[in-house]
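Thread: "does anyone have the structure for this chain?"

Original post by V.I.:
We have the sequence but no experimental structure in hand. Need at least a predicted one for the grant figures.
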Amino acid sequence: YDVARDPSHPNQIWIASRNAGLKLWNIAADTLLHELTYDIPGKGSRYSPYDITITAKHLYVATSQGLFSMPIGQPQQGLTLLYPIKATSATQCCEPFLVNNLCHAGEKWLFAATQAGIVSLDLVSNKVNVRHKGEYIRHIEVYDNKLYALADGKLLVEELDGRGEKQYPLPQAVLTFYK
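Reply from O.Q.:
Generated one for you, tokens below.
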């Protein structure tokens, strides 16, 4: 579903594989060498990562099971669930929770379009907030320091901190957009 490259490691690429997890590959001359597949609790590598975003400190993955992360530069075998967090660890990673796509605004914000709202992660404080709870958010992007989100039947536009929300009705279902 996605390919990402960390600028600080130009000989590595991350590949999001349908029903096969997140994979790290090394580029060696004209060959790709598989280094590692990253598991998630309760699913192993049998999950679908839909989007990958890399910041200075973390790699974030939108999956069929939620929003996951991993520190950059610290080797580990699996990803850590950021959202949704359940009451018990036994149910935490086994239920589907769709995260459609990710975008970040500098080193301050990470946004996730989910089946139940917009998850906003303050990258400085690591606080998670959910906006538009209960709404299916299909796609999000940041343009001109504003967050644009496609929900069922409407386009939402708001400040990065959630203030100044405007809604624009859409006459049909829209899956993505470009400004």
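V.I.: this helps a lot. The chain has a mean pLDDT of 88.
O.Q.: and The longest helix spans residues 89-92.
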